[in-house]
Design goal:
mainly alpha, 11 helices, globular
Amino acid sequence: MIFLLIAWVCFTLMQFIEAASFGSRVAGKLTNRLSLGSSLQHTIFTLSRLFLPPLLFSLSFMIESGLSIQSFLMTSFLLTISAFFASLVVLLNFNYFQLLFQNLFIQYQNNSIPISILKVFFGKKIKFNMVNMETIPKIKNLSIKKIFTSIVAYLFLTTSFLVAFSFAILTPEYRMTMSQLTTLFQGFGALILTMYIDPMIGRSLDVKLENINWINNIYSIFIGRLLAYLFASIIFLYTYSV
């Protein structure tokens, strides 16, 4: 039970932090600090990977302890549906998170990244010229193509080790080989992310602020990520039931 709790906490926090890091790019756009916003997003993303070792260790120990495929599928459903709701919280409070990053930009002028993060949450509040998001795109303005591409990319990125570990349970004599499928699935998702999604976001952020296409693109990618969690949850739950 303790390892299930560790896996749940680590996976949910990792996906929550990664989703919240999108606010850094938005804050960079709104305050004309594009380079800083992009750099901080990648920094926060890298820091979120600190939860990966205990997550994989916990899941591996559960499998080595004789966890059945049905129990692992239910575990996978719990992880992905929790990530869905955690990311939904970020989406519904997107302006709040991008304002946090604006605060972080100010703190970073005189402090290192770790100290700046601590001061944002626990330090004395400072006054600065906050730039709020004035518009939230309508559903009809979002790009179906970009949403679909985001779903595919994040479906592979977020479920790669869960799917690989499921195959490892089904074929215990080849479980080491099956576990290496994580690299294959991650690589496919990362290819889409680096070859299409990241360059597209970077290009759209370079346009003038008055052009609202950039915020439509951000929301399209974010909603695609959100739907990827939901679809993964449905797949794991359906597979568990059959």
